[in-house]
Amino acid sequence: MEELVQRIKEDGRVLGEGVLKVDSFVTHQVDPNLMEAIGYRFAEVFAESGITKIVTIEASGIAPALFAAKKLNVPMIFARKAKSLTMDEELLTSSVYSFTKQVTSQISISRKFLSSEDKVLIIDDFLANGQAAKGLVELCQQAGAQVDGIGIVIEKSFQDGRELLEEMGMRVVSLARIASLQNGEVEFLEGDA
Amino acid sequence: MEELVQRIKEDGRVLGEGVLKVDSFVTHQVDPNLMEAIGYRFAEVFAESGITKIVTIEASGIAPALFAAKKLNVPMIFARKAKSLTMDEELLTSSVYSFTKQVTSQISISRKFLSSEDKVLIIDDFLANGQAAKGLVELCQQAGAQVDGIGIVIEKSFQDGRELLEEMGMRVVSLARIASLQNGEVEFLEGDA
């Protein structure tokens, strides 16, 4: 997605250790126009898939997932990283290790929101080692829902997340694919859409 | 906001202890069409205020804040509840006690995203005792930004959050105002917009 790649070139910042910081338009401050364009692109790619639910994880996945859900006219569910006192029902849960935060956390979705009738599009902001997306796939599978694809805003193609998800039989659609962050420079691969 | 009040009547669920559960359309599963209508209503109310930034807090505030930001064509910033490894810059921070989760947490926004040039509209999903909104106001004030108003999706008017914020000189605009949750019934006051 050219508009996204250009924005990463202009406003992304490479920190040490393979970190790409996009906190001025994705992960902290959010550009709603870009998020709409991203969400609509995912909706376009999966327009014929009969998607019934968009699933993401709090917090940075919510913006692109919401616009995709708006365009496909389906509900969006965001998995929770911590259990709330008002989440009293039966939960789908999975463990996710975050290399960024260096903790393993439980993620969960109330079982009542996913069923074997559902065809799910998973959306997340980043794909690195694939642990978050894998956790989301597992939540959907626990409910018997079919995962039709995984839409990723920014893929770090030099990490093994995409391979992990494809080995699980998943279709991965990444709008920006990053080949390398070496020497403080962002090198891109051709994106999927 | 009649559409929101109707939806609360249909799909909201009163738990014990003054808890209104709206997890099927606001706080866990999200209805993007309703969120758009809500965001656009806030945008309409504050259309003439010269708002430059929308500020909310992860995670349930993001959806209504994003659509308001889209309509007003300004960035949306969501305050973080936990510090990320990639948030390396100087932070605005404030303490918030959550009665729902029974913990005090630090919330933060990178200082670079707010300045004395900004006119801020704060948006959140719930207003109960006002601790989260107060924390967001404090973050904006630390940056010297002007807070023009606080847009709330659902206000528990039987708690003292609105009073607290109004005593701080804030304009509070709540789309649904709940007078009481006694006996498992939702009683409404007239909403602000």
From TrEMBL, chains A, B:
Belongs to the purine/pyrimidine phosphoribosyltransferase family. Xpt subfamily. 5-phospho-alpha-D-ribose 1-diphosphate binds at A128, N129, G130, Q131, A132. It is found in: Cytoplasm. It is an enzyme of class 2 (transferase). It holds the Pfam family Pribosyltran. Converts the preformed base xanthine, a product of nucleic acid breakdown, to xanthosine 5'-monophosphate (XMP), so it can be reused for RNA or DNA synthesis. Residues 48-156 form the Phosphoribosyltransferase domain. Homodimer. Pathway: Purine metabolism; XMP biosynthesis via salvage pathway; XMP from xanthine: step 1/1. This is Xanthine phosphoribosyltransferase. GO terms for molecular function: xanthine phosphoribosyltransferase activity. One of its GO terms (cellular component) is cytoplasm. The keyword Lyase does not apply. It comes from the Bacteria. It catalyses: XMP + diphosphate = xanthine + 5-phospho-alpha-D-ribose 1-diphosphate.
